[in-house]
């Protein structure tokens, strides 16, 4: 099986680089070798590699910055993804594309299913929805895999790394407690992607996050508990819960973005591991 992996330098891309070679022959592309703002580069990559499967982990992910760069976000997450879908469909390749909980507005109080109406609040979510819609319009053999609150050892930065950095310098941290989701470790997510690549599952939209629910405050408290038990050097003594209103950001975020994983669990034969288990594993790997 020939696999084209895009976004190889991101936190998920780095995890996929270690796990996908067990599944097939992997050709890796990063932003320098496959620029999603250049449609001809996308067409060229598909023509050169002629993959059986395209795993698209490339994305514009700067949620707040996208509010001032909506055109760039849409070019990468929307238009470019549409071209990728067209070229994949032309050669009969399966496209597995990573999307986000930010396509929802967070007004529900129960987990979002794949068929719930989308209503993104900000430029990032809107750009990702454009990509989803482009893939569905092209049709063919596609999997759109929505995930949420992703963190891992690789990539530039994420919530866990930020908390460890700040917790190493400060005695008190204030963390938002009224946004709720499911923290998702790239190790578990990459493992699920590797399984999906090998399965002949029906095309469509699926959700995958770690199991369980947390606020950012809950997540921060858990990070420090687990990190202290592993011997990370931390100064933090107190984590104080605050509201979203007390920590304004350029982009509006969904207050509740828990995704139902029942559909993917029925395909994989098991529910994803609990988020705390993933966190413990990531921190142990990160320290090692």
Descriptive overview:
The chain is of the alpha/beta class and 288 residues long. The chain has a domain at 2-156 and 184-210 and 258-273: 3-Layer(aba) Sandwich (Rossmann fold), CATH 3.40.50.720. The chain has nine helices and twelve strands. The strands form four sheets. A six-stranded parallel sheet has the order 2-1-3-4-5-10, sandwiched between helices. A two-stranded parallel sheet has the order 6-9. Helix 3 links the parallel strand 3 and strand 4. The protein is globular, with a radius of gyration of 19 Å. The chain starts with a strand and ends with a helix.
Helix residue percentage: 25-40%
- Supply the CATH architecture of the domain at 2-156 and 184-210 and 258-273: 3-Layer(aba) Sandwich
Largest sheet: 6 strands, parallel
H/E order of the elements? EHEHEHEHEEHEEEHEEHEHH
- Quick one: CATH superfamily of the domain at 2-156 and 184-210 and 258-273? NAD(P)-binding Rossmann-like Domain
Output the radius of gyration: 19 Å
Overall form: globular
CATH fold-level name of the domain at 2-156 and 184-210 and 258-273: Rossmann fold
Sequence of strands across the biggest β-sheet: 2-1-3-4-5-10
Instruction: Kindly state the number of beta strands.
Output: 12
Brief account:
This protein is an alpha/beta fold and 288 residues long. It has helices spanning 11-19, 39-49, 70-90, 123-138, 159-167, 186-198, 216-229, 262-268, 275-287, and strands spanning 2-6, 25-29, 53-56, 94-100, 142-147, 150-151, 172-176, 180-181, 184-185, 204-207, 214-215, 238-242.
């Amino acid at each position: 099986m020939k696999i084209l992996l895009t976004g190889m330098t991101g936190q998920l891309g780095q995890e996929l680089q270690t796990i996908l070679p067990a599944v097939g022959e992997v050709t890796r592309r990063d932003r320098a070798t496959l620029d999603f703002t250049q449609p001809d580069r996308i067409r060229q990559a598909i023509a050169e590699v002629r993959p059986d499967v395209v795993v698209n982990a490339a994305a514009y992910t700067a949620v707040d910055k996208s509010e001032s760069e909506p055109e760039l976000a849409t070019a990468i997450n929307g238009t470019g993804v549409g071209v990728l879908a067209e070229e994949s469909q032309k050669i009969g390749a399966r496209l597995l594309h990573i999307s986000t909980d930010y396509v929802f507005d967070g007004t529900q109080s129960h987990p979002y299913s794949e068929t719930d109406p989308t209503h993104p609040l900000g430029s990032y979510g809107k750009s990702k929805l454009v990509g989803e819609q482009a893939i569905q319009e092209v049709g063919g053999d596609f999997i759109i895999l929505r995930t949420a609150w992703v963190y891992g050892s690789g990539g530039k930065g994420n919530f866990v790394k930020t908390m460890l950095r700040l917790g190493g310098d400060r005695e008190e941290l204030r963390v938002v407690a009224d946004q709720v989701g499911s923290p998702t470790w790239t190790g578990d997510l990459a493992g699920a992607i590797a399984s999906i690549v090998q399965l002949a599952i029906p095309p469509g939209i699926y959700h995958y996050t770690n199991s369980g629910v947390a606020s950012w405050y809950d997540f921060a408290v858990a990070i420090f508990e687990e990190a202290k038990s592993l011997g990370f050097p931390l100064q933090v003594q107190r984590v104080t819960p605050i509201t979203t209103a007390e920590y304004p950001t350029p982009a509006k975020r969904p207050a509740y973005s828990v995704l139902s994983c029942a559909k993917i669990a029925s395909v994989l034969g098991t529910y994803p591991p609990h988020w705390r288990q993933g966190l413990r594993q990531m921190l142990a790997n990160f320290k090692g």
